[in-house]
Amino acid sequence: MIKEKTLRIGFIGCGKMAQALAKGFIASGITRSENIIGSSPRIDSMFIEEFSAIGCSTTHENAQVVEQADVIIVATKPPLVPKVLTEINPVVNSDNLIVSIAMGIPLINLEQMLPRKTRVIRVMPNTPVLVRSGASVFSCGTSTRSEDATLTKRLFTAVGLCEEVPEVLIDACTGLSGSGPAYMYIAMEALADGGVKMGIPRDLAYKLSAQTLIGAAKMVLETGRHPGALKDDVCSPAGSTIQAVYFLEKSGFRSSLMEAVQAATLKSKQTGRKE
Ligand SMILES: NC(=O)C1=CN([C@@H]2O[C@H](COP(=O)(O)OP(=O)(O)OC[C@H]3O[C@@H](n4cnc5c(N)ncnc54)[C@H](OP(=O)(O)O)[C@@H]3O)[C@@H](O)[C@H]2O)C=CC1
Ligand SMILES: O=C(O)[C@@H]1CCC=N1
């Protein structure tokens, strides 16, 4: 069993998601910055600079990440995954746990691009891992051991919620929680715009809209009550909220969100068929 704090984590690709995870892991204490390494081939990569600024090692050689880490997180854009897995294939061995966070790429494809019996896990995290409030799901490949699932759960729970799911659900989870922060930022911006339209200063409007989303989310998670019942508590008879709710229903607010999740899910599934 690998001990916390000495866990060596490598990132192939050290862009936005890799940095969010690295910062979240360091803040959680599950490992230290000196035990994290990230790669990007470009000599003038801005991401490489940002990654070293948080105290992590960097390299332009993907193979070096595999040689220096216990857990290797594949964090390049999906179309680059076949290229980077083919590149690291000769140095991957049975001590490595390969964790792919790439949107849409199924475990079977990942396993086919790596040596036989490589331990592979597919994770779909989201950017709030940066502030340890992420929502991640994962599925295990055919050669993983039970301790690989335990380690993955421990790592991603250190930066938020983490659930193991059947792989068939990962594209849908990508559409809901992987992409979901973007939908909520749009909602927050629009709420704040509405507030500004009604005379609230911009700074206060952003604070109020963000805190309102945090508060509503905590109410669902901490009370265990149905979101519909919590909504009913806010809607006084003949009050202001029900006027707004009527307007949202008429404008297709619910179906817009449902279709957004569906569109992102289908895009993720399509990506898997292409790679
Ligand atoms: N952003 C998000 O919210 C989420 C993203 N994901 C997944 O995470 C992955 C990364 O996304 P994101 O962080 O947003 O993307 P970024 O573009 O921010 O990061 C990609 C990184 O890959 C590097 N890179 C490019 N070519 C190579 C190569 N040949 N070998 C190694 N590294 C390379 C880039 O380096 P450089 O540009 O410096 O050349 C960059 O550091 C994607 O597969 C995405 O589906 C999953 C969940 C959420
Ligand atoms: O938009 C994307 O492709 C990635 C996957 C989930 C969130 N961002």
TrEMBL record:
Pathway: Amino-acid biosynthesis; L-proline biosynthesis; L-proline from L-glutamate 5-semialdehyde: step 1/1. Residues 8-103 form the Pyrroline-5-carboxylate reductase catalytic N-terminal domain. It comes from Daphnia magna. Keywords: Amino-acid biosynthesis, Cytoplasm, NADP, Oxidoreductase, Proline biosynthesis. Its EC number is 1.5.1.2. This is Pyrroline-5-carboxylate reductase. The lineage of its organism: Eukaryota, Metazoa, Ecdysozoa, Arthropoda, Crustacea. Transmembrane segments: none annotated. NADPH binds at N62. It is found in: Cytoplasm. Residues 167-270 form the Pyrroline-5-carboxylate reductase dimerisation domain. The keyword rRNA processing does not apply. HAMAP family: P5C_reductase. One of its GO terms (molecular function) is pyrroline-5-carboxylate reductase activity. InterPro entries: 6-PGluconate_DH-like_C_sf (IPR008927), NAD(P)-bd_dom_sf (IPR036291), P5C_Rdtase_cat_N (IPR028939), P5CR-like_CS (IPR053790), P5CR_dimer (IPR029036), Pyrroline-COOH_reductase (IPR000304). It is an enzyme of class 1 (oxidoreductase). Belongs to the pyrroline-5-carboxylate reductase family.
